[in-house]
Amino acid sequence: MDNHLARYYQLKETQKQVEEELTLLRSELLERYAEAGKAETDEYALSISYQERREYNDDKVYNALPDASLWRLMSRADTGKIASLLKLNVLQEQWLTGTYEVRKVPVVRVQKW
User: Fold this and answer.
1) DSSP for residue 65
2) pTM, whole model, 2 decimals?
3) Tens of pLDDT along 62-79?
4) CA proximity to 95, closest of 56, 40, 50, 51
5) What is the number of helices (H) and of strands (E) in the chain?
């Protein structure tokens, strides 16, 4: 049991270090190539694209809903839950107009040739 705990701890520490390094490299790539959108070397291809994501305001969503019982389905303005409720036609898109801000999030892809 001690071996499993020690190995788990060791792997979590390694994961933390890898994630920190990935974050640093990602930000450096975005600084250097954000405007170009693409870059290539002999072995690798970099592609930077932007996704639009909605950030909902809890108070605005709550006030926009026609029935307070709908809020209980969400409990907070979670983007995933709202998207699911929109697909199920529980919520309507026009109810949510003005309750969110659209934010562009960069997506970094690196492929090896």
Assistant:
1) -
2) 0.66
3) 999 888 888 888 778 888
4) 56
5) 4, 3
